[in-house]
Each structure stands twice: as C-alpha cells, then as structure tokens.
TrEMBL record:
The gene is xerC. The lineage of its organism: Archaea, Methanobacteriati, Methanobacteriota, Stenosarchaea group, Halobacteria. Keywords: DNA integration, DNA recombination, DNA-binding, Plasmid. Residues 22-31 have a biased composition (Basic and acidic residues). InterPro entries: CB, DNA_brk_join_enz, Integrase-like_cat_sf, Integrase_recombinase_N, SAM-like_dom, Tyrosine_recombinase_XerCD. This is XerD/XerC family integrase. Residues 1-16 have a biased composition (Polar residues). The keyword DNA-binding applies. Pfam families: Phage_int_SAM_5 (PF13102). GO terms for molecular function: DNA binding. The keyword DNA-binding applies.
Amino acid sequence: MHQNTSSTRDGSTPLASSFERYLQDKGKGRGGDGGNYRRNAARELERFAKWAAGDRGDDDWSGIVPDGIDREPTFADLDERVFREYARHLAGDRGLKQNTVQTYYRYISAWCGWCVNEGYLEAHYAQRASAMAPLPDDDGRRPGDQQAWTSEQRHALTRHVDEQAREAIETYTSLPDDVNQHDKQRARYAALKATRDRALVFTLAYTAVRVGELLRDPNDPRRRGVRWEEISLDDGSMDVYRKKQQWDAASLPDPVIAPLRSYRKLLNPPTDRWPVFPTFDQRTLSTLVEDELADRGERPDAIDKQRDEYARDLLLALDKDIRPPSITTDGARSILKRLSGAAEIDIDHPKHEYLAPHGGRRGMGEVLVRAFGYTVAARYLDNSEEMVRERYSHIEAGELGDVATEALNEIDSTPRNVDKQG
C-alpha cells in the first residue's frame, strides 16, 4: 500500500473519489464546470474506471482489484503495470486510430500526474516507459483538423450562399405593398436566414477564426458567441475570446465586410448586444419568447395573441428586444452540412462528408503560408510560427521538392565531358 502524508489520501482511497476535484481544476469558467477538456477528460476517466473495475466486456478481465476482494478500485491498486495494461487495452481496440489511442491515454496520464501532485500517488506511473510501451506510434495527425477547404470548394460554397442570399433579398424587397402581412414576414425571415448563412460562411472561409471563438460553446460559459458590439465593419476588425483565454482583435478581410453589412442592415438588431449569428431554432425561440414575455408581466392569452401576429418568433424577438442565444458550434456544423449538400460540392475526405468549420480556417492557412510565408500566417492564425510550420509542413516539403526537381533538370541539361576510350 502506498504511504501518503495526508491522512485522508492513503492507498485505500477509491479512484473515482478524485475525479470531480480533478475535473474542477481542469475545467473552465466559474467553479470549473465548463470547457471541452473537462467534458472529454470526464468521459475518459469514466472509461478508465469501468475498465479498472473489470467492466470491459471481456470474461477474461476481472479488473485491477486482487482476486477474492470485493471493493472498488483504489489507489493502492495502481502501479505502472496497470497503466501498461490499459495502454495495451486501448491499442487493442481496432476501432481507434493511432493518434486517438494516444489522445485517450494522455487524458489518463494527465490525471495520474495530478494525483501525484495532490498526494494520491507516489509516482507518475503512467509516464514510465514500460507503461507507455504498448501505445502505437503517433501518426502525426490530429483528430478532426486535417480537412482544408480548397480554393474550388471555398468559391463554390461562397458563390452558392451569395446567390441564395441575393435571391431571398430580391424576393423580400420586391413584394407589393398590399401583400399579406404574414407573407411579408415569411419573406423577411427567409432573407434573414439566407443572409445570416452567407455572413457565417464568408466569416469562416476568410477570417481563419476558430469556430469556438465565433459561436457559442455550451460547455464553456465564456464563449457565448460574438456580438455586434464586438465587430467594427469600418475598421475591419472583430474582438474574439481566443483559445489562449484572452480577448484579442481578429481581422475582417474585404470579402467578409459586404456580407456582414448587408445582413446587419436587414436584421437591424435592437441593440449591439445581440449575437451576430443568433439561432433560428424554432423550439428554442418559442420557449425564450414565452418565458421572457411572462417575466415582463404578460398574461398567457396576451402572449399567445402577440405570437399569432408574427409568422416567426424570431421577428417578435427582434421587435421586443428578446435577445436569443448564438448558434452553437454544433449548430454551425449542421448549417454547413446543409449548405454543402445544397451546393453539391465535391468532397473527398475520410472523416467529413461536408465542408467542416475548421476546414475553412485550415484552408485559409494554406493560402497565407503559400502567399506570405509562415511568420505572417502565424500572426493571422493566432498560432506560434512553430505550430504553423508543423501543421503546414507539407507545403515546405512540396516547395523543396520543386527546388530539387529544378536542380536535377539543371544538372541533367548541362553538357558533360566524356572520356573516350580508344
């Protein structure tokens, strides 16, 4: 049994009793309740706990508790052999890619290191060479970030959303004066949705801003989506909460300005605190409108009457300044799936059958590296130059290949003196 200076953290402490405190330390926001890392780490800790207790769907595996002892796994049961066996278990899952196995193990290894610092364990067993030996070599790829929009894909998608927005605006603005009020509202709603989608696509395609910096992340309360007060169309800039946990200005290049300006004019938000990309989900908006009007003292029959006057709750929310939440990052993926299909874009990618949000950022990175080099691209992408060089190393490799080809062609075309044998 491992000895510990803390009387409450000896070897008999159950593993699971440490999880919540660890997750709070690693979480974001007030109380450490938010953040993608916390969510992913919680999932992997739960997976590890089930495996340690013998629950892995394998009759030959009884867990890490010694045979004949009926209790849940404790810290006394942990050593480097346990982590070696878990690494072997992850590596043996044929459904996991090499880099995914590495990622899952890192979550458990990080928890193990925290346990050492907190006095639960004497040593960082998970980082020992023997424990990590069964892990496959990392193939160098990162889950989910390989797709990059090509120039053809970017132009096809932006052209499609531009055409859809122009048609919707034309339909709305050309309605006769005597048109039915609800028909006019439906046309405005369609135009709003089309111009919102166009502004979103252009922003993702040309700014290289991370989708989590632009839209709402339900797992991180600080990421509530960009608001109009954080955008300056005249200056061509946008304040976003960066991955490095601080606010910073991102550039809005020329192709993004006109779509945003047209969309804002049509939306006409009641205040600048409105999200730039509000959700259009009807269930969310109906609940929001009913609750907000009730909080303002409206009676149920009066609320129903007001809602009946509008073809869509979003239009009522605009008139009554009932601020909706931003689209979520998952919502953006759904929008891009719909638009990629409607635009009939040719996509050949092993993971994504649509143009994923991160692909817009990565595609813009390709453009910047090729046009201006790694230093400028790193500044625009809000990354270190070292990371940008690593992510876009294929560009440098290709350029060096061209240099080598040119050198070979130069040498091969040079006349040579050949000794003639008599």
